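hey can u check if this looks right to u? its 188 residues, i copy pasted from the old doc so theres a chance i mangled smth
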Amino acid sequence: MGPPSCLPAAFTAALLWACTAPPAPQPKAAEPVRGQVSVRLDYATSCGIAGLRESTLRRVNTARAAARSCGRQQMPAAPPLAWNDALFSAAARHSQDMARRDYFEHASPDGVRVGARLLAEGYRWRSVGENIAGGERSVETVMRGWMDSPGHCANIMNAQFTEIGLACAERQGSTWGTYWTMVLGRPR
């Protein structure tokens, strides 16, 4: 499946949703994909970007520190987010899966969504949001694209979220080359 024709080829991002309460009943935890490559949980080398974790936290928390307009929606300043390894792991697994199977969607081809991915990581969530992007080569450019997109900006600025994880996976010869996933959450 190729990129949507209505979006620029250099940057594509999609927004899932920001749930304010867990669905009833909770989604089934994601089952491992047969032959799935294990996720390398290495902050310093995600897509070869040194200091990915620190750069992400600095940029996201700087953005949240000031009120801003996300399209037509006015968003107040929000408290800083803390890094969460379970959110990072869920983001890394989704980015790697998109790269390996060459798709660009919030739901895997098997229909697994962010809530189920978090449950599989043992993260019991109260609210969750997800941003994805493809083709970007740095935290700076992916953040710029998300902050320029009303839905992604609103996700990042959502004061309900208290934690974050972000990962990037790359695969030469795939449609996008790089696959980014940002997961934002608030635990129960």
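The radius of gyration is 15 Å.
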